[in-house]
Amino acid sequence: MTAAATLPTWNPLSLWYSDGWTVTKRNLIKIKRSPDMLVFAVVQPIMFVLLFSQVYAGAISVQGTDYVQFLMAGIFAQTVVFGSTFSGSAMAQDLKEGIIDRFRSLPMSSSAVLIGRTNSDLVLNTISMVIMMLTGLLVGWRVNSSVSEFLAGVGLLLLFSYSFSWVMALLGMSVKTPEVINNASFLILFPLTFISNAFVPSDTLPTPLRVFAEWNPVSSLVQAARELFGNEGTAPVPDIWTMQNPILTVLIGITVMLVLFVPLCIRKFASISSR
Amino acid sequence: MNIIEASGLTKVYRSKSGPVHALAGLDLSVPRGTVKALLGPNGAGKTTVVKMLTTLIRPDSGTAYVDGIDVVADPKGVRRVIGVSGQYAAVDENLTGFENLEMVGRLYHLGGAESRRRAQELIDLFELTAAGNRPVKGFSGGMRRRIDLAGALVINPKVLFLDEPTTGLDPRSRIALWAVIKRLVADGTTVLLTTQYLEEADQLSDDIVVIDDGRVIAEGTSDQLKAQIGGHRLVVALVESGDGPAAQEILARYGAGEPMVTSDGRGLEVAVIDGPRALQQVLAALGAADIRLHDAGMRRPTLDDVFLKLTGHKADQTADVAADAELEKAK
User: Fold this and answer.
1) In chain B, which residues touch A (CB < 8 A)?
2) Looking at residue A60, what DSSP letter applies?
3) Domain spanning B231-300: CATH 3.30.70.980
4) Which of A22, A25, A102 has the CB atom closest to B151's CB atom?
5) Could you tell me which CATH number the domain at B2-227 has?
6) pLDDT score for B277
7) Domain extents for chain A?
């Protein structure tokens, strides 16, 4: 009967770290035990790389480089964007199953569930990324930049996916069923990733789509990754600030997402309950 | 001293068909070391009370203290001293029983070694040893509830909240879970329990609070409530509906209160205080009057009987389902 009275009082920072890690570990076990999630993380990226590199390589020409070099940054960007939606559907799923009520009735750090969610999804995205890179190397993709540029490119993609996870987590807490997230991501993310420079040079698109693609934040992400991996070819970059300064644009985007959505998520989490 | 003290709790959910008053000024106090049952039909507000006291939702108005800690001002303080187990077993399907309990221990900040030790102790206590190392996914409903209940006991909480602990369980699992809860209660843990079953409240609690439409409508020990509604019910079924009036007169003589008659005139029912004795007397009298019976017996009072007596209306299930759907939409 005395355990309740003798709970240790930890300092907030170590508590935050330890709670976040406990939830991360729980999510990782979950991923390990759900074959469908591993398929999503491993098989899907392989399929995308092989499909696009083998099917479209002959049909699409890119100035100054071959299609596989051009394609890979696009697939990386698309995969991290879609990978982040998992944070949303997983939050919605936890809410539906009632485990969120358990978490909220424990004296844990109020951001730990969200930290754990976004951390474990970052792990999942990193796995996808490594698999994609290996598959890419197999079909002829090469990095033509320095090691530090390469690492900066990987870091930028993962950081983007991490911050986008927070956006999706807020969505996941706001919808009634996990299915809504999956449907919404198809409706919004497919156009967003396909009407961009990810798979074709944007100057080949009809005017309205071209304008959309040039201003599309996904295009900036793709352009930044292409430049950092040395895969950009010789085609002129559209004369738009975001495309001329893609790395800075992506960094600003990441900052804005984190500054806005981390506090919004924590606030939302404090008031949700499964029933 | 009361370990739970709540007064004037209100909560209104907005819905398309207007506001739904989940709680309309509810007062509640639970003395330390006792077991109190909140008894009421679906949609009466039981779960809303538990969610407020466990800091999951905030009251619109009113105050609530658990172990002297304000649930609104210091939710984390409250969470450090309570354990919660709900109607919808809040366990992670993909983790094993052991992993679930260890995780809860870590989130109470017991540390790794102590969390593992306590998890194993609870697995043994709840006789889940065989299943402790398999993902919860494959567990039966009763075993999930046991894991969930174990999760609420990781710290030996000062107050244990059990929200409809046996709803949806088969009778055997229900009785097994009751045995577990009774053991805990014998150790002196304060428990606030919600239930739709009078029998469950009767089995487990010292004191019962009956709630309806977000308000307390009666309070007392199980015996006091039963005295109000007249303990057992004596039921007879006549062969000839023509014997109705004579039988009714006999039931009125030995029962407590007015007998009720079914619409076909052949089924009669009356509340009785000393059940077996009343049954003997009634059967003897009916026999002496040469009234033939299809069936005769006693039944325990149900929530419906309590409600009929206290509110004049039945704990109507269909209305509650509608009210629940309403609440669901409102959220």
Assistant:
1) 47, 51, 54-58, 76, 79-82, 84, 86, 88-95, 99, 103-104, 106-111, 135, 151, 155-158, 187-189, 328, 331
2) -
3) yes
4) A102
5) 3.40.50.300
6) 83
7) 34-269
Q: Does B80 contact A4 at a Cβ distance shorter than 8 Å?
A: yes
Count other Cβ atoms within 10 Å, centred on residue A273.
16
Confidence of residue B230 (pLDDT cuts 50, 70, 90): low
At B229, the pLDDT band (50, 70, 90 cuts) reads low
What residue ranges of chain A have pLDDT lower than 70? Answer: 1-10, 274-275
Is the distance from CB of B225 to CB of B306 less than 8 angstroms? yes
Contact state of A101 with B86 under an 8 Å Cβ cutoff:
yes
Beta carbons of B157 and A34 less than 8 Å apart: no
Please give the pLDDT value at position A3. Answer: 45
Question: Contact, A224 vs A153, CB < 8 A?
Answer: yes
CA distances from A214 to A44, A238, A254, B259, B315 (A): 27, 7, 19, 83, 63
Cα separation, A206 vs B3, in Å, equals 71
Q: Is A4 on the interface with B (CB under 8 A)?
A: yes
- A258 burial (CB, 10 Å; 0-12 / 13-18 / 19+) is middle
pTM: 0.82
Give A121 to chain B, closest Cα distance, Å: 17
Q: List the domain boundaries for chain B.
A: 2-227, 231-300
